[in-house]
Predict the 3D structure of the following.
Amino acid sequence: MILTFKVSFVEMWNHVRHAGYWIFAVLGMWVLLYFMNAWTWRIIIKGSGDCPVPFWKLYKITITGFALNYATPAGLMGGEPYKIMELTPYVGRERATSSVLLFAMTHIFAHFWYWLTAVVLYVLFVPIDTRMAIILPLIALFALSGIYMFVRGYKRGMVMTIIKFLSKLPGCRNWCRRFMEKHAEELRNIDCQIAQLHGQNKHSFYASFCLEYVGRVMQSFEIFFMLRLVNVQGTMPQLFMYSFVILAFTSLFANLLFFMPLQLGGREGGFAMSTVQMKMVGASGALLTLKEAMTIAVFISIICRLRELVWTCIGMLLMKIGTKVKGNISPVTSQQKSSMVEEQ
């Protein structure tokens, strides 16, 4: 992406300078968003019993977990094992695993509803051409399929289903069989804890889901600030609707390229395609030309990428802070932690 990106470093620096103090607003907004993520995780942990983990610790682990997810291929393969290892000394491996999986499920579940909401908003407020008339039903079908799959997963558990699916893939069959034989009881317990949140702790389930969905909606303000900055015309609700849809389609496209570290190129491409498609009005009162829309898309993607890199660095640095377990809880030994790394 760096070698083929048709924007010079001078232009990128000019975009950053143009954003000015709004960069601090964008960066600061994520203090609240990560707070909401940590709060969601705490609700999920408390849904299966006591939560002996200090909130500041959950907050720190949440930031680092997202930083690892950004920086490693295959998305959740980086941050989730780290979060399980950090939480295990407090609540045990089974509860740690189930709470982290539940948080990841709730996070993704909220994304599916967010994408479906964006399709409805687009149909209601944006002129639809032939291409979007084909794409929108496909996105809606994808979102509804994901929602259905996760509802079934919440009711029955999802771990055993995933392991059974992996056992059908070439090269994974023998490993999955050995893993299931060795950890069958633990996997069943984790699935029971996942199903328990949905079946017996409705309040915790809906509270965690609402927090995650509201977090996705609030993230739209990141783009809203920048649309205002580049003088895109429209009422406040209209600009927020643009921001909502742009973020939804960009996150969908970027998540389809989950195997790329930092979703490099995918996120930029998503911003470009969704911004061009919105048919917004510029400062002149006329519809934005393709070149103008692309310029705005590049501006948004650069500021969002800068925010992402700053918070990734913060998350990596926080890895070294507050690593000791305090209280009457026995921390895992280095040998046990090594064993956990291998199993994850």
Observations:
- The radius of gyration is 21 Å.
- The longest helix spans residues 93-125.
- The CA atoms of residues 4 and 66 lie 27 Å apart.
- Residues 327-338 have pLDDT under 50 and may be disordered.
